[in-house]
Amino acid sequence: MHFQATTPLLLSLLATLFLTTAAQPVKSAYPEDPAYPETPTYPKDPTYPETPAYPKDPTYPETPTYPKDPTYPFFLPPSFWQDPTHHHPLRLSSSDSLTACLCDQLVFSLKMYSSTDSTHELHRPLDGVNPEDRKDAPLGPEGIRWTLASGASTETQTYYVALDDGCFFFLQVAYANFGFGPNVQLSYRYYDPKNPSISDFRSANLSASKFKLSEDNRSFHMNEVSSSTKDGHNFSVLLSFKEKAQFTLTAETEAFRLGKGRTTFGVGEDASYIAHDWVLQSRSEGIITLKDRSTRSLNGTATLVHAIQRGRPYALATKWRFAVAYGKRLTCNMISFQTSEKWGSQWVGQSGIAIDGKMLGATDQVFGEPDGEEEDVVSGYSIPTGQTYWCEGILSDGRPCKVKFHAPMKQLVERIDLLAQLPWMLRKVIQTFVTRPFLYQWWETVKATITLGDEVIEEDIQLLQEASFMR
Ligand SMILES: *[C@@H]1O[C@H](CO)[C@@H](O)[C@H](O)[C@H]1NC(C)=O
Ligand SMILES: *[C@@H]1O[C@H](CO)[C@@H](O)[C@H](O)[C@H]1NC(C)=O
Ligand SMILES: *[C@@H]1O[C@H](CO)[C@@H](O)[C@H](O)[C@H]1NC(C)=O
Ligand SMILES: *[C@@H]1O[C@H](CO)[C@@H](O)[C@H](O)[C@H]1NC(C)=O
After folding, report:
1. What separation in Å is there between the alpha carbon of 282 and the centre of ligand 4?
2. Which one of 63, 322, 350, 455 is at 20 to 30 Å from 308 when CA atoms are compared?
3. d(Cα 173, Cα 157) in Å, to the nearest integer?
4. From ligand 4's centre to the CA of 287, what distance in Å?
C-alpha cells in the first residue's frame, strides 16, 4: 500500500468530516445487524412510482416579489454591543496559549501590535453587523442557495425530521471538493426509539459528476437523491437509492441566516469560513421504505440546515455541539463549534428560536455545559455524561428570551467513526498523525424551559443532539 496513492482518497474522505456521517457505524459497539450490509442486489419495487423527471407542479406558487417584513423580530444580545471582541476582531499573537485569559486591554494591545498579522483573525457572524441590518436576517426572496465554493470546501444540506410517531429521520447530502475531483456523500438514518433495532443507516459515496444544480442554484438533482425548491424555503426531496423516500417540507418559519451567516478565519479572498443558513421549522409530509421493506410515515416537524465549510475541517474546528429541539410550541436549534488551537479554541455559536410556528429570532449567545465527562474507550474522546444547553437574546420588543434544557445523553443512537471505511493501517496512521473524527448522536425526550420576558413556558421536547470531535 502506497501512502502516496491513497492520499487523494484520504483527502476526499476528510472533506466530508464536518457534520457528516460519512462512514459506517463502529461495529463492535452495536448488535450486529444481520441484514446489514448484505443488500447488494436490492430488488426493484414495481409498485414504487418512477419519477425520473421531477414533475413540475403548476399549482406551486411563484414568489417573485417576496415582500420585506420591516417588523420581523430579531435578537440583539445586550452583551453584543458591550463586548469589545465583537467590534474588534480578535487577533491572536503567535502564542496561542494567551487566548484563554485575554482581557479587553490585552485584546486591544494585541490588535495594536499585530496589525500586520492578519492570518489569525476570526470574524464571527455578527461582527460589524449593525442592528438595522439584522432585520435582513431572513433570507427573503433569496432563499437558500448552493454556492459550491471554489477551493477546498464541503457543502452540506441536512434534513432533520422529528416524526409525529416519535421516531427520527435524517438525510444529509454533502458535496465535498478538495481539488481531487468532487464527490457527494449521501447519508440517511431512520431511528425508532421504541424499537432501536430498526435503526436504518446508510452512507454512500457518489460521483459528483451527476450532481446537477438548477439555474438558480437552489435545487439539485442526482439519480439517487434530489431536492427541488422554487423559493429556497419550501423543498421537495426524493431519495431513490437502496431505500426510497419522498417528502415535502413546507416552511413554517422562513429560511434564516444569523448576521453575515458565516465565521471567517483570516482575511482576503481565500479565507476559510464556516457558514450556516437554515429553515428552522417546516412541516414534513412523506413516506420512506426501510431496509426491511416496511413503509413508514415521514410526517413530522423538520429542520433544514445548509452548511458550508471552506478549508480543511479539522484545521478550523475540533469540536462541534449540535442540538435541535421540537416541542408542541417550541422549535429551537443550537449549533456551536470550538475553533482549533490555532484559532484560539474559541466557542462560536448560533441559535434560532420559534414559538407556535413563528420565528422569534436568532442569537449568537449559545452555551453548553457538560455534567461531567467520561472517556469513550473506542474513540478515546471524553464524552459528556449529560449536558445543559441554553441560548439567550433580547427580542425586538425588548423582552429577554431564554431557552434552556438538560440532556441526559443516555439514548445514544450511534457512534460513528468517520474514518471506518479506510484500511486499518491507513486509519491508524491518520488517527495518530492527522485527525480522529468521531460523531455521536442522541435522540431523547427532555424538558425545556422557555423564558419570554415574565412568561415561563415548560414543555417536553424531542431532542436530537450531535457531538463531533476531530483533533
Ligand atoms: C468516492 O467517489 C469518488 C468519485 O466516484 C472517488 O474518486 C473517491 O475515491 C471515492 N471515495 C471513497 C472514499 O470511496
Ligand atoms: C449560481 O452559482 C454560480 C457559481 O457557483 C454563479 O456563477 C451563478 O451566478 C449563480 N447563479 C445564480 C442565479 O445565483
Ligand atoms: C412555502 O409554501 C407555502 C405553501 O405553499 C406558502 O404558503 C409559503 O408562502 C411558502 N413560503 C415561502 C417562504 O415561500
Ligand atoms: C401524512 O400527512 C398527510 C397530509 O396531512 C396525510 O394525508 C397522510 O395520511 C399522513 N400520513 C400518515 C401516515 O399519517
Report:
1. 15
2. 63
3. 5
4. 9
Neighbours of 381 (CB within 10 A): 20
DSSP character string of 79-141: HHHH-HHHHS-B---S-GGGGGG--HHHHHHHHHHTTT--TT-EE-TTTT--HHHHTT-B-GG
Torsion of the alpha carbons at 449, 138, 275 and 8, rounded to the nearest 10: 120
Cα 50 to averaged position of ligand 1 atoms, centre (Å): 27
Ligand 4: residues whose CB is within 6 Å?
Answer: 285, 297, 299
User: What is the chain's alpha carbon radius of gyration, rounded to the nearest angstrom?
Assistant: 22
Instruction: Give the pLDDT confidence score for residue 170 in this predicted structure.
Output: 92
Per-10-residue mean pLDDT of the chain, 471 residues long, equals: 37 39 40 54 60 55 40 37 32 26 28 40 82 65 88 88 95 80 86 87 86 95 95 96 95 90 86 92 97 95 94 82 95 93 90 92 90 87 92 85 93 73 56 69 94 95 90 72
All domains in the chain, ordered by first residue: 3-39+74-469 (2.40.370.10)
CB 292 within 8 A of CB 310: no
Q: Is the CB of 207 under 6 A from ligand 1?
A: yes
Provide CB contacts within 8 A for 34, sequence distance 6+.
none
Residue pLDDT, tens place only, 279-329: 999 999 999 999 999 999 999 999 999 999 888 777 888 888 999 999 999
For residue 286, the ligand 4 atom closest to its alpha carbon is 1
Q: Residue 462 carries which side chain, given as an amino acid letter? A: Q
Ligand nearest to the CA of 24: 1
